[in-house]
Design a protein that fits this description.
The chain has about 230 residues and is of the alpha+beta class. The chain is built from nine helices and five strands, in the order H-H-H-H-H-H-H-E-E-H-E-H-E-E.
């Protein structure tokens, strides 16, 4: 055994990968430290970080590491089946994320483009649903989320959840959408009130409410187009 080896538990807190991530953020960790978090532990003679460095040195880079099989990873002393599977699963998630990032975000150019996006989702439902589109500075859709699901004549929206999701997605703009199963396009008093409430909250957080659409099977009503905003 290498008498100069110190296990991670004996390192200063700033040098431990998990604690380092919590204190300083994920971006400051090296590839080896991130892999060390995945595998959790090394061996009696080698820390998880040292083991991760050895694996990376052999693989040359993360792309090559992601192509390794379970059996190949298990050739490294200290890597059993569970640790090998964890590494492969994590790198596969990274690959899928890159594939998603490569997809061009949809840009909202008009109320009609919102209708075309949301009508297949809520236009023919027998009950009301309230959705929010989260947009960036270029009016491209970062995400869309169902905020609530109600009965035939209404649904309840928690304004706090709207802006929690907006901040999580890094959105600078919102478009509100809900359907009217009755086919009536006219906004109710409740529709107007919740729009005003969300718009006021957005103004204080610098997240602009760009429009609110009421959607039916074949038509839509835009608050902006009708001059309500």
């Amino acid at each position: 055994m290498d008498t100069n080896h110190f296990p991670i538990t004996n390192w200063s807190e700033d040098d431990r990968p998990r604690e380092k991530l919590m204190l300083k953020g994920k971006s400051v960790l090296s590839d080896a430290e991130l892999i060390a978090i995945l595998i959790g532990s090394g061996s009696r003679s080698e820390s998880a970080v040292d083991l991760s460095k050895r694996i990376l040195a052999s693989a040359d880079n993360l792309n090559a590491l992601g192509k390794m099989s379970v059996a190949q990873l298990m050739n490294f002393k200290g890597i059993g089946e569970a640790k090998a599977i964890t590494i492969i699963a994590a790198l596969e998630l990274g690959r899928r994320r890159r594939a998603e990032d490569a997809v061009e975000l949809i840009k909202i150019a008009s109320s009609k483009s919102v209708f075309e996006m949301m009508q297949p989702i809520i236009g023919e439902l027998p009950h009301e649903e309230f959705w929010v589109l989260f947009l960036n500075n270029s009016n491209k859709v970062l995400a869309k989320s169902q905020l609530s699901k109600g009965g035939i004549s209404g649904t309840i929206v928690d304004v706090r959840i709207v802006f929690k999701l907006a901040l999580e997605n890094g959105a600078t703009g919102l478009i509100l959408c809900h359907n009217h199963p009755s086919g009536n396009l006219q906004p109710s008093d409740a529709d107007r009130q919740i729009t005003k409430k969300i718009k006021l909250a957005g103004d204080s957080l610098d997240v602009k409410v760009l429009d609110h659409l009421i959607i039916t099977e074949t038509k839509y009503y835009s608050f902006v187009d009708e001059g309500i905003f």
